[in-house]
Amino acid sequence: MMTRLKTWVSAAALAGGVALASLGAGTARAQETIKVGILHSLSGTMAISETTLKDAMLMLIAEQNKKGGVLGKKLEPVVVDPASNWPLFAEKARELIAKDKVSAVFGCWTSVSRKSVLPVFKELNSILFYPVQYEGEESERNVFYTGAAPNQQAIPAVDYLMKEEKVERWVLEGTDYVYPRTTNKILEAYLTAKGVKPEDISINYTPFGQADWQTRVAAIKSFGSAGKKTAVVSTINGDANVPFYKELANQGIKATDIPVVAFSVGEEELAGIDTKPLVGHLAAWNYFESIDTPENKAFIQQWQAYKKNPKAVTNDPMEAHYIGFNMWVKAVEKAGTVDPDKVIAALPGTEQKNLTGGTSQMLPNHHITKPVFIGEIKDDGQFDVVNKTEGLIPGEAWSKQLEGSKDLEADWVKLNCGNYNTKTKKCGGA
Amino acid sequence: MIRIIILSLLLGLAAPAVAQDAVPADAYTRLASDSYGDIEAGIAALAASGDPRAGAVLSALGEGRLLYRPADKALFIKQGDALADARTGAPAQAEGLKPVRANNKIRRALDAAQGQLNLASPDAARRREAADAVFKARDPVALPALDAALARESDAGVKRALAAARAAVLLAKPGTPDAERLAALPSIQARGDGDAIAILRTVAASDPNETVKAAAGRGIQQVETRLAIAAAAQNVWYGVSLGSVLLLAAIGLAITFGVMGIINMAHGEMVMLGAYTTYLVQDAIRAHAPGLFDWSLAISIPCAFLVAGAVGVAIERGIIRFLYGRPLETLLATFGVSLILQQAVRSIFGPTNREVGSPGFMSGAFDLFGLSITWGRLWIVLFSLAVFLGLLFVLRKTAFGLKTRAVTQNRRMAAAMGIRTPWVDAMTFGLGSGIAGIAGVALSQIDNVSPNLGQGYIIDSFLVVVFGGVGNLWGTLVAALTLGVANKLFEPYFGAVLAKIALLVFIILFIQKRPRGLFALKGRAVES
Amino acid sequence: MTRTRLIDPKGWIFLAALAAFCLVVPLLNLGVAEGSGLHLPTYLVSLFGKYLAFALLALSLDLVWGYCGILSLGHGAFFGLGGYAMGMYLMRQIGPRGVYGNPVLPDFMVFLNYKELPWYWLGFDHFAFAALMVLAVPGLLAFVFGWLAFRSRVTGVYLSIITQAMTFALMLAFFRNDMGLGGNNGLTDFKDILGFPVQAQGTRVALFVATGIALALGYLVARFMTVSAYGKILIAVRDAEPRTRFLGYRPEHYKTLAFTVSAMMAGVAGALYVPQVGIINPGEFAPTNSIEAVIWVAVGGRGTLVGAALGAVIVNYAKTVLTGAMPDAWLFALGALFVVVTLFMPKGIVGSLIERFGSPRAKAKLPPEPEIAPKLAEEGQG
């Protein structure tokens, strides 16, 4: 009896071993295509935002292949699902680079997922394009940030509210994680510098997925009834936004009383809400679907045809991927190779027309120049652009408002450093 | 800008007969513009004109029905499919029109203008809104008009609002005599809200007269006491409302887990299915019978019950019936089912949120003794209680309920008595799932309708059922309300996260004290 | 009753396979040239290391679930705490190499304006202290929690749900940036461990082997606990707690000890997991993670120890393959796996094997199939 058990167990172990070994195989094939990794969550809490970006990348790659690919080779997308699980992001990034030998990866949404994959990209020397607005305070050789840094979103929005809406009292409402924390710190410093008194700033954090906003919205309402024009600057994360806006509407807070300007609410998020009670609340982005340019029109048409859905909406991170992907294509063609070192060297300075009528440029700090638009929510779930910055704003990796970071400078072209300290004249990091 | 509008309107009230030809020639032309500044000026000019068409034009602008022709700056109002000339109201034909855009500033100017137009409205509620607008603007020029309106007013509520507005203006106006300022304080105090406190604070801080200062100080204290009481009551209400959501989420689980002993990890997904059913029903209604939209939730309830119930029966027949008496394995299997259901919904509907609208009767709020109660939440509270009572009735008073209890308490004995236990199992599980589906209809009103919807409620649901005592519906009710109210009472002091953590720790410690929950089943408890 | 051997044939197979694995993997990775078809890429070494860390977690869970009937839905908490203890050590090793170049404070503290290191970070620059904490923090939490719960005779689903509440509360707490542990981002960007660069090939192989050894030791400890006289009483508690109590034993003492040892093992698993995946964040405390760990045990076979470890490896291997091969539909496959295992292999993979081929004695030691009719509790409240 025991021998049979042994046979069984060893057979199972052997089968497992073979299967595991097979994980490593399959890379010997000749490189007739250029592989591009797509690292976006397709399940779990972040699937709601990231799935669209996966589709957008697949569309961009298909379009490029129609034009003949890159360097005469077809592009081959490699999609994996990191399942909104941060350690899994690192594991999947490793798999994409080491096993699938992709030339660049487009992916991540949350800061923590980016932080999780960072060491992997540094170690294996590959390229990551990160398409989402984030808290800044970072510049890595292997990462290109195509989303907005705080100075490309938060500060222009606050300027607009101060100037146009004459706001004197501020509620900075955010989800408790690093992006809202940093953004609110920057804003607090900025507002104080502009002469706003500390008692006129209220900062509050709620947990992820906060669903019951009754108390908070009532608190905002009472904070706003002090006789001074009040606005809410919202860095509330994805999931929690719908219940937040529903509660605002329920408690009758209209944009004309207390406007809410959000940095994480776009067309995609509004598709899940009845926007009639929200008309007039604001969002600050570098792209809106409603912006009327020929490039944008073509992009929207392409997207709706690709999704086979005439109601499919486009949003800011999609545009970031559009810009990032095209910049990568240009840099690869300029370098004549997909070798990461050469592409990383070729990327700064690369220019690409964005979808809103300007031309974005990759800066030496691996951020890009972007226009900033302020939009008001319309009743059809789109945004009405009410303000636009003069020209394009360069992304700042290190905030000028924060102690500790204002002396730092990122320049990968001249200094070859992501955190050069202008005071000590030393490159800070390892 | 608003000052001018209010002033002009109030003056207009006092002397309503402004000649037609006084309409500035460019009021309409200014509106026909792409620039917000021009539009705002246009609104002011139009409001000041006393033009009888002003009301119609302004409301068309507010609703996005005001169009203009860029070529000659002619203005049109869209009514359904037809067009009318804005100046005359006569039917018109035109091509190449653009809507006159509105932003927050425009909307505020519109609100002020329209509110003021309503000061002479026969509707008392509208007059009151107008009085509140003046209260907020606090503009001395409005004083004579306010006096006139006060003299005319017969409704007591509106009169109070007008008096408060007048008092606010008096306090803001430089040079009001001390006695008048002192006399103005009580009407402000009577308002008793945050705005009133703000005014009183300014007076208490900066009034030149010490008596007035002291009176304002006393007023602040009184209003603050009242506000504190109201805030406490408000928190209790928020707690009841949160508790009702917990109750709704947990009550289906109280059947599948509490009564049947199945650790049903797919419970949250039943709630999600209910929410998606609501979405589908609303979609169908929007497409085929828009008139029924206010009934969409009522129609969704039976649909959600059937959909979730049917899925529940299928799960029971397909999987769970092989696992009775092995509760820990039901955990494993239903966790698998929950993954499959989530992914299925994600594949069919996509990962993004679906929009579920609120019918008219669920939006807005009303005032109850200083408490602001939103209709939507009130309906959810009532609905959850109705579901609870209905379920209690089914389990306690019907033959089916009797059989359910018999089977879960002693399966073999029940079978020996001739009860078809497999049928009862399937129906009971279907009932629990269907109730979860109904909960989904209500939750679609306050939360994301996404594949992750159920995940947000599953842990809380288990906690509620366990805290209340497994197998006891009343326990579930008391537990849900207790947790809801406690959470909301803690929240203002500790913040949302610490309040939640404190509650979790409390539950852990409470279970040490009463290892079978609040209301333990007496005697030979169902436990394995 | 005859004395049970510490290592039975099943155990020998397991240990031999584990030893072979721990020899072959480094050999194929370090000993075979990169170009060769037999070469094992370094990233797989870390991946296997992660599987082994999960296997140790599953083993610790099986010790309490399989042998004393405590279904913990909160073992992820102990795993996470162990991981955080190790993460704090690794953070302190970064020193001035953070982006702000602060020699003492980790980056996230610099931009949250911390002026000095919070007290609970003190000592974590020493490996020995961190290693002690890896055992002590989960152990202490489990001891207090278990002592309270088992003394009050909280059992069954009530116990499961409060363990879940425990890990949920910890998750919420660790998500707070005010905790001073990095909030949602957790701890990441590690550089050195014991002076060796974390990302170096050699370090990775060493970590992998260390995890293998920890798993083997964990198995021996668990095995020792379950076959000793103590283990017999543990099993008696699992199968009939009131009767054991009536015989004069104090079940709560036995359970608390098992729970504490199990939590320490989970903590070690977490500590070995963190340097290999490169991040620890509050997501590890998510209740679903703990439920998943329970599922590994169930898939492999509850109450068999070897099965738990095997289950963890199989399910995680399936996850790795499926998230890459069918990113849009892998949840269907994983969900179906759970359902199928429950329905057709109620005793898990190893349990089913034993049932088919094992000796009567081996069969007898499997956890009993509960009766079809709900068991009547012999100790109601009233």
UniProtKB/TrEMBL annotation, chain A:
SUPFAM superfamilies: Periplasmic binding protein-like I. Residues 1-30 form the signal peptide. Pfam families: Peripla_BP_5. InterPro entries: ABC_urea-bd_UrtA, Peripla_BP_I. Keywords: Signal. The keyword NAD does not apply. This is Urea ABC transporter substrate-binding protein. It comes from Methylobacterium hispanicum.
TrEMBL record, chain B:
It comes from the Bacteria. The keyword Disulfide bond does not apply. One of its GO terms (biological process) is amino acid transport. The chain crosses the membrane at residues 236-263, 295-315, 327-349, 369-395, 462-486, 492-511. One of its GO terms (cellular component) is plasma membrane. It is a multi-pass membrane protein. InterPro entries: ABC_transp_permease (IPR001851), ABC_UrtB_bac (IPR017779), BCAA_transport_permease (IPR052157). Residues 1-19 form the signal peptide. NCBIfam families: urea_trans_UrtB. This is Urea ABC transporter permease. The lineage of its organism: Bacteria, Pseudomonadati, Pseudomonadota, Alphaproteobacteria, Hyphomicrobiales.
Automatic annotation (TrEMBL), chain C:
It is found in: Cell membrane. It is a multi-pass membrane protein. Keywords: Cell membrane, Membrane, Transmembrane, Transmembrane helix. It holds the Pfam family BPD_transp_2. InterPro entries: ABC_transp_permease (IPR001851), ABC_transptr_urea_perm_UrtC (IPR017778), LivM-like (IPR043428). It comes from the Bacteria. Residues 362-382 are annotated as: Disordered. The chain crosses the membrane at residues 12-32, 38-57, 64-86, 127-150, 157-175, 205-235, 256-274, 294-317, 329-350. The keyword Flavoprotein does not apply. GO terms for molecular function: branched-chain amino acid transmembrane transporter activity. This is Urea ABC transporter permease subunit UrtC.
